[in-house]
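Suppose a colleague, Dr. K., hands you the sequence of a protein chain of 254 amino acids and asks what its three-dimensional shape might be. Before reaching for any lab equipment, you can write down a predicted structure in token form. Begin with the sequence itself:
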Amino acid sequence: MLLSLLCLVWYPSLLFQFSATFAVLTRPGFWLLLLLDGALNLIAYYFFVRAFRLSDASLVAPLILITPVLLLVTSPLMLSEHVSPLGAFGVIFAVVGSAFLGMSDRRESLLTSFIVLVRDPGARSMFITATVWSITSNLDKLGVRASTPLLWIAAITIFIALCSIIFWLAMPRRPPRLKDMRYAALSGAANALGNALQMYALTLLFVPYVIAIKRMSGLFTVVASGVIFKENTRGRLFGAAIMLAGTALIVFAS
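The predicted structure, expressed as tokens, is then:
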């Protein structure tokens, strides 16, 4: 809703001459990109929510930091965007950091921590999310090129929201509580602003760099989960910091 209002404020002619204005703002391939990106994002969000339901937030949230690593493969294939060899060191740091996320005790071996991640259903779900987002992040840049940053993020958000509402209505559900809706509204507003800024950033930087910077939020999630939810973050904070160092190397590998 917020993004739609911003889009109408930014492009007021959409209110009076929607078809003509929309045709000017979009380019061939827009609708195909919207359908493909929207469908993949629905899959990613499903596994994203599932990950938090099955595992501790401090374990699964930092795994999203793997997305920039995967973008080192998908961005060259989809956008011909290549990073310098320094990005390889970022990959190593990110992989080692992910291993530490599974540690509840520093005396555990890296092999043991990897086994913990592989066996954890929430971690597996988040790995799927990270993989899908390594594709949709590139599609977002193609979508921005086929329209404008604000129009693209508004369109993709509307698509995801409508499909999510249909899915919610079709499934057994309980009436939403006012308290939950309040948190959802705050989260949605923050997410809308962040996504809008991300689309503008895609016009300035390579996709792996933009997503690497965005994924720094994983480190803050580990801290917050320990403070707010009293989750055991020993070892995980250290692992998240290593992963953050890896993404930082990718950012500076330009």
